[in-house]
Amino acid sequence: VKVDLDRTADANRGKVPPPPEVKAIVPTSQRSGISWRYTIEKPADGWFQPDFDDSAWKQGPGGFGTEGTPGAVVRTEWKTSDIWLRRSFDWPTGKVENPLLLVHHDEDAEVYINGVLAGKAGGFVGEYEETPMTPEGRAALKPGKNVFAVHCHQTQGGQSIDVGIITVTEKPQR
Q1: Neighbour tally for 40: CB within 10 Å
Q2: Largest CA distance in the chain
Q3: Secondary structure letter of residue 143 according to DSSP
Q4: Which pTM value belongs to this model?
Q5: What are the residues whose beta carbons fall under 8 Å from the beta carbon of 160, sequence distance 6 or more?
Q6: 6 vs 18: CA distance, rounded Å
Q7: For residues 79 and 37, what is the distance between their CA atoms, to the nearest angstrom?
Q8: Phi, psi for 44 (deg, rounded to 5)
Q9: CB 161, CB 65: distance < 8 Å
Q10: How far apart are CA 85 and CA 64, in angstroms?
Q11: What is the pLDDT of residue 174?
Q12: What is the mean pLDDT of residues 65-92?
């Protein structure tokens, strides 16, 4: 690992760059429970399409998982190998620069927006992580009502799933 000498010298002098600004566009359930429709039974084909009828699915607040999973906020217990989630959200009018998925997953997750695969996250994490959105996922976002559809697969240990959308903006140096 090579150290940037100028940045290290600035840090030693107390000149550190301001932290980036993180803005929740579509919140996760980290701070308060967001209502999702969910099922632990494999749904019919097309479950990720925006017009899919999920009215027979259960409803509960996110995040989903088991207590004790590192970094997880669990409001609805989930103990099976798979869970499918859906919820609608409002997307603002105007351009949103570089939207990112914010995901806590244990283990593998697939996130769809309006029927389009917007991102995948493999393995597990110990905290909420920024996950790049596919170009197709970004293009699927439209002002007004949109639909998240999420599948998470679990094999062993703790488990969790929670999803939102953020933007991260670097602040200019002073």
Answers
A1: 15
A2: 60
A3: S
A4: 0.89
A5: 63, 64, 65, 66, 69, 71, 72, 73, 74, 104, 105, 106
A6: 16
A7: 16
A8: -65, 160
A9: yes
A10: 9
A11: 57
A12: 97
Q: Which residues contact 59 (CB under 8 A, 6 or more apart)?
A: 35, 36, 37, 38
> How distant, in Å, are the alpha carbons of 124, 144, 168 from that of 21?
25, 24, 6
Residue 42's pLDDT is what? 98
CA 91 – CA 84 distance, rounded (Å): 22
What is the per-residue pLDDT for 6?
86
CB neighbour class for 68 (10 Å; exposed up to 12, middle 13-18, buried from 19): exposed
Distance CA 107, CA 121 (A): 8
Read off the tokens for 143.
């002002």
Sign of CA dihedral 70, 75, 78, 82: negative
Helix spans in the chain (H): 5-12, 135-140
Q: What confidence score (pLDDT) does residue 26 get?
A: 98
Q: How far apart are CA 161 and CA 151, in angstroms?
A: 9
The tokens describing 64, both together, are 């989903």
